[in-house]
Amino acid sequence: MYVAVKGGERAIENAHAWLAEERRGDTSVAELSVAQIREQLSLAVNRVMAEGSLYDPDLAALAIKQARGDLIEAIFLIRAYRTTLPRFGASAPVETGEMVCDRRISATFKDAPGGQVLGPTFDYTHRLLDFKLAAEGAVPEAPEGEAKDGPVPHITGFLNREGLIQTEDESDATPPDLTREPMELPASRALRLQSLTRGDEGFVLGMAYSTQRGYARNHAFVGELRIGTVEVEMDIPELGFAIGIGEITLTECETVNQFKGSKTEPPQFTRGYGLVFGQTERKAISMALVDRALRWKELGEDDVGAPAQDEEFVLMHSDNIQATGFLEHIKLPHYVDFQSELELVRKLRREAEGQAAREAAE
Amino acid sequence: MAEMTEPSERQAWMSTLAKAPAADLARLWDGLGLAPEHEMLRAPEVGAVMVRGRTGATGAPFNLGEMTVTRCSLRLGCGAVGHGYVQGRDKAHATTAALVDALMQTDKADRVREGVVTPLTEALAAAQATRRAKAAATRVEFFTMQRGED
């Protein structure tokens, strides 16, 4: 049954007006600018770009302001905006081996060529609240050292030379795109990586943690974690050659995992891979662990029934916008649905009461 | 029109124009005092490019996510065609990039190179050098406290 109802327009309008006022907060406190959010809440901006699946720091900052700091709401705004943009094409795959690294560490090789570069990290901070930040004040310039020129080689390249790590299949095949075609299962690794890189950080982290706690444990070492900028290049048809169309910050994590070998493969190390927009280290490491867990089939490992091995479970629940949409729709008017449920329960109760009365009479 | 420039040089200036902060380009362009007549071949248009990565950095491509890009194409009175493809959503940035690209193919190339392209290239290189130097200052120098064989 469908019942058209009207009303509520004024309540909605007033609710939105109040929302705008609450968003602004106390007007005796200076208003936050989009540039301030972009520059000073940059890790929130990075998360919104990664999960919104659109690299544009200004837009992400605006979305955070509009969403009053609710990052999933901000991601929703970015996803909605993204659908309005015409697509000019696809870039050449970014060369992370040529990344200009702000940070580059390896947990497997102390003396990695290129060195252990910590970058602007929270690691080794004491996680004590810094009350100096509550007062305004200038920040001293960070010290500078002597930079070495040239690209920093990937750590896995060294293991590769000895044949001790599984190599990636070389290919230039056009990857599937889950923003264009509905996701089909079983999914290729390319599709899984696209899904994971835009997946909810909390969900992907939880899945990764579950593998560490023993649900499809895969003994991951962080072979390398690097954060920095890469140039994005695209072929321009009207020019007939490729040009750089911009520069983006990425976080890349390559895990090195134990592998005992299978019927076809000798014992060697295997890999998990994480690549995420922005400085998003927790997400990139999580992505690499989950990527590795999902590879059980192609590596000939056992399905131990762990959630992180279940492609359907992981990929269909990692998107926080899909999840939010379905979860939150239950708060919207369901008056008619509920009316029918109410009538059903009343009917069942009448029948049960009638039954009890008949049994008592017998 | 001047002789055709090498694609590699044109690639370099187009990439610089794409990455340069819009405000820097606007300031340098204004300083040049050029306002060449032109007709639009493609009005400035905001869109997205799907950025790809490679599985394990070296394997098969996958779709990482999109980035915003603005493009513009125009033709100068002398016939030179310029294209601008720039990061972000700034239409003025794309238009100026297309004008610079077109002028770089004319006898004004030296003036435009000196006034716009070279300063932008140097500013980008300087910004990158500063980040590299700050990163270098966080490189760990290990030293051995004690060896086990003692």
TrEMBL record, chain A:
Q: Which GO terms describe its biological process?
A: organic phosphonate metabolic process
One Pfam entry name: PhnI
List the InterPro entries hit by this protein, alphabetically. Answer: PhnI
Q: Which domain of life is it from?
A: Bacteria
Keyword annotations from UniProtKB, A to Z: Lyase
User: What is a GO molecular function of this protein?
Assistant: lyase activity
Q: What is this protein called?
A: Carbon-phosphorus lyase complex subunit PhnI
